[in-house]
Amino acid sequence: MVPFNHPQVGELRLNREKLLISGTDGIMLVVYHPDPGTPDADKLALLGAASAGVSAGGRQAVRKVAQ
After folding, report:
1. Quick check: 47 and 9 in contact, CB under 8 A?
2. Quick check: 6 and 67 in contact, CB under 8 A?
3. Which of 5, 22, 39, 62 is the S-S candidate for 50 at Cβ 3.0 to 4.6 Å?
4. Mean pLDDT score of the chain
């Protein structure tokens, strides 16, 4: 688990998977994901929903969640 501190949802603890891309010179795809059904998954879903609501001016329609 890797901890992240996000300014809008607070602390997130995500799993990290590293996948080597074959045929490249060591390029890797890194994927971060929460455990299903956890508060971290809920926070990440909230951020995803907020990013879908980004206005043309670049301002997000998300509020800081109570911690």
Report:
1. yes
2. no
3. 62
4. 84
5-31: average pLDDT: 95
pLDDT digit string, tens, across residues 19-35 = 999 999 999 999 999 99
> What is this structure's pTM?
0.68
* Strand order from edge to edge, sheet including 28-33: 2-6, 10-20, 28-33
Burial-class residue 1 by CB neighbours within 10 Å (0-12, 13-18, 19+). exposed
Separation of alpha carbons 10 and 12, rounded Å: 7
Q: How many residues does the chain have?
A: 67
